[in-house]
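Subject: Sanity check before I submit

Could someone independently write out the structure tokens for this chain? I want to compare against mine line by line before I put it in a report. The sequence has 367 residues.
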Amino acid sequence: MTVSDETNSPAFAVIMAGGSGTRFWPYSRRKRPKHLLGIFGEKSLLQQTVARLIPLIPPERILIVTAREHAREVLRQLPELAVSNIISEPVGRNTAPCIGLAAEHIRRRAANGIMVCLPADHLITDQESFRRTIAAAIDFARFNASLVTIGIKPTAPETGYGYIQPGEMLQEVLGKKLYRVGAFREKPSAEQAKDFLARGDHLWNSGVFIWQVKVIREELEKCLPNLYRLLEEIGQCLGTRQEAKTLKTNYGNMEPVSIDYGVLERAERVLVIPGEFDWRDLGSWDAFWELSEKDRQKNAVRAGDSILLDTTNSLAVSPGKLVVLLGVEDLLIVETKDTLLICRRGRSQHIGNVPKLLAAQDKTKYL
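---
Independent answer below. Compare away.
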């Protein structure tokens, strides 16, 4: 299934692969963040993301925005992509600058292009349903000046995700219903998340967005004018001798801001399509435990060998070693060659603070 280009509005995929995956420490490190790792399956999360898109969008229109120090590894993992399709950020500045930079690159290739923006670290099993949902969003965005998001029906009271509350239904496209966004909700407390789940009127914010290049540029200019000015200067220098210098200077002067907070929560023309496919953001070790195969006591173990006695609801990751757990419950235990993490299950959202502490204590060899 390839999206039609009959209207001269080709669809491009923009995969955001610039994150450091700090909540997945100690496996995710600066030199090799989680989206470059084969955590579930032999292929990395980034490779899996590209593979699920190719039946819909050809490789020549798949762009990867990544950190400069990871560009070579990205190219090694994705030989089907051209070097020009790897966009290197000189420094991480969150998703609004990332998407804005990709928009400048796409505008040079197709001023009427459509952007499908998505993170590199999602797990999606029902790939056909995923592609049908994205195809419907592209079809709508091609003829409407709207910002389209994909929401996921919650299956648990997750506190690590943002939420979307749909409003009135607008129309149906290719069998998919589009709703106006009533409200965006920040990552909720445990009680709020339980309330959202019980009410059944909220969706997880998947972080997948579809829109026309010119529409997102208009919204960036309206909502984040300083960011837009810096991005436009970069766009004017693309392909010239000034490109590298302007990119480094302007990107360094950008305020780190997410596309959700910077644009979507302020814009008026935002729609959501409920995605009817299995989706998980592999953002933490709790998510890893939930997705892993477990024994009858709900333990998940990835080790050379293991002995579990009177142990429940725990995760142990220690490749090549014997793991023995006795009389424990609700633990996350992760070992690498130089680190050992022990965390209470349900607290892994806070692991992202560990790299900050390591940096502050000048223990950079563990980052």
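---
OP: Matches mine. For the report I'm noting this point. The first helix runs from residue 45 to 53.
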